[in-house]
Amino acid sequence: MKLVTAVIKPFKLDDVREALSEIGIQGITVTEVKGFGRQKGHTELYRGAEYVVDFLPKIKLEVAVSSEQVDQVIEAITGAANTGKIGDGKIFVSTLEEIIRIRTGERGTDAI
């Protein structure tokens, strides 16, 4: 079992959600986050004053999947979130030791 975590641009959330639905992913967790990578933020103008925005708004998605689904999930996220511009985001894959569904007590891939 794997946890796929993706940090993407906010306006790409619906595209990524649809792409994941098409491959049969039923549940995702979405969090609004702020951060920066190589972009190092940007400058904006507000009422004539220029100021630096260090942390840019991003969306963090978390998807628990079976090991067999990881490549499909990565392809779906990459395809849907890609704009070809800096700041498209990152995907992280980590191993999950155990998953437990609270309501039923199911464990492992049955709990996904």
Automatic annotation (TrEMBL):
One of its GO terms (cellular component) is cytosol. The keyword Nucleotide-binding applies. PROSITE patterns: PII_GLNB_CTER, PII_GLNB_DOM, PII_GLNB_UMP. Coiled coil: none annotated. The modification O-UMP-tyrosine is found at residue 51. InterPro entries: N-reg_PII, N-reg_PII-like_a/b, N-reg_PII/ATP_PRibTrfase_C, N-reg_PII_CS, N-reg_PII_urydylation_site. This is Transcriptional regulator. The lineage of its organism: Bacteria, Pseudomonadati, Pseudomonadota, Gammaproteobacteria, Oceanospirillales.
